[in-house]
Amino acid sequence: WVLFCDDDNHLFPDYIQNAWPILEGNEKIGVLGGQGVALFETEKPEWFDKFRLSFAVGPQADKDGKLSHNSKRHLHSAGSFFRKQPLLEIFNRGFSTIMVGYRGAQLSGGEDTEWCILMKLMGYELWYSSNLKFHHCMPKNRMTWTYYLNLKKGISSGAARLESYTLFSKRDNPGVL
User: Fold this and answer.
1) Residues 6 or more apart whose Cβ sits within 8 Å of residue 88
2) What is the pTM of this model?
């Protein structure tokens, strides 16, 4: 397993203890995500709760467990466990991803969505647990409307690139690449 914990994420002390029984209990899990809890440097903006998922904060599903295969929802990489072996297999075959993560001030995301799509295409499931909590630091400079608009611009800039996976995901047996 590979656990993504960004420099602005702080796992709750029981994070791995809570995750391990879920991960070990189901060999079909490809990605297991948790719930970011905002830790604000300054006062929370009034608009934040409405758009919190863009900041990897809040519940990622309505209930714990497997996300529906047809769900358009994917998991944030922040605080998520990814099954290592299938990813190594495709990368060792020379596959390279379309999306890249944030680089400095460039807010182009989407690599976590692509990795979730890849796991689903390989026949694995996406799971969520509300018991996996981590603090996600929200510094003052991220809590502006301008920052949020730039964040959404970066997130949406990859939507067309990810559309190439749509044909595969609609197949009867998407677990076969």
Assistant:
1) none
2) 0.85
